[in-house]
Amino acid sequence: MKRHLVCLTFDFDAMSGFIARGMMSATPVSRGEFGADVATPRILELLKKYRILSSWYIPGHTLETYPDRCKEVYDAGHEIGHHGWSHVPPALLSRQEEEEGLIRANEQIKKLTGRYARGYRSPAWDLSPHSVELLLKHGFIYDSSMMGNDFTPYRVRQGDSITLDKPAVFGKSTRLIEMPVSWTLDDHPHFEFIRTKEWILPGLMNANLVLDDWINDFNYMKKKLNWGVIIYTFHPYVIGRGGRMSILEKLIKKLKDSGAVFTTVEAAASEYDKKHPFKG
Ligand SMILES: [Zn+2]
């Protein structure tokens, strides 16, 4: 039987992403506030309207700054995944800093949900050489930070040797499941304008054109695969602003009409695990 899963995922960064980039003045902080105070309630209302359960990756910074808002997300039945403590990508942290952040945010997740997170998504999608080992050590079932497939999960390798002047040597597969993502299916680079002294993220694309791309990807999966999962990544402060909310609603309607099955990433990972048990 054909089955095409759709995971709507929300990286609830609030202002943590700006802080991690050194942007701590009132305006960038207010962009994060918008995500927590205005956009998240809108998104929760929309998901409730369509009875969709989604996955929320929440940095420890947001969990500790907005405990009540995070509780609303959890109480609505959504999955709470791990997204670091600060929003600094693990690739820029020492092993000790990475593990401390992993533990600190996980304690907040346990406080909120009664259990440690099963799923992890690295801030800004950049794992360190220690991430896989640490995720396995701390009981994670899946990661959602890599791009090695588009619609089919896979097992994460450990111990690759990647150097500038030699061919890549690949390590062994582990039981950690990769739930792959893509910048094309992420609202942030399409829409968000950010300017610093050193760089500019232009963003501000026409949302209708982006919607077309997002639907085309689902249609391709439906045509080519009997079983597949497509993971869309949103940020409340990006997708929750004004007219973009109607693009999110159009996406939901269109995919529903095309036979999509909406589920959390944890549930999709567990389906994959049953279909392809880890052999070691
Ligand atoms: Zn994030």
Portion in helices? 40-55%
Largest sheet: 5 strands, parallel
| Count of DSSP strands | 11
Q: Shape, please?
A: globular
Task: Indicate the proportion of strand residues.
Answer: 15-25%
Poorly predicted parts: none
Distance between the termini: 28 Å
Mean pLDDT over the residues: 97
Instruction: Specify the oligomeric state.
Output: single chain
The succession of helices and strands, N to C, reads EHHEHHEHEHEEEHEEHEHHEH
Helix/sheet category = alpha/beta
Question: What small molecules does the structure contain?
Answer: zinc ion
Count of helices?
A: 11
Cα-atom radius of gyration: 18 Å
Write the SSE topology.
Blueprint: E1 3-11, H1 16-20, H2 26-49, E2 55-58, H3 60-65, H4 67-75, E3 79-82, H5 95-113, E4 119-120, H6 131-137, E5 142-143, E6 154-158, E7 172-178, H7 187-191, E8 194-195, E9 200-201, H8 207-224, E10 227-234, H9 236-239, H10 244-257, E11 261-262, H11 265-275
Parallel strand pairs: 1-2, 1-10, 1-11, 2-3, 4-5, 5-7
Antiparallel strand pairs: 6-7, 8-9
Zinc ion is lined by residues 11, 13, 17, 83, 87, 123.
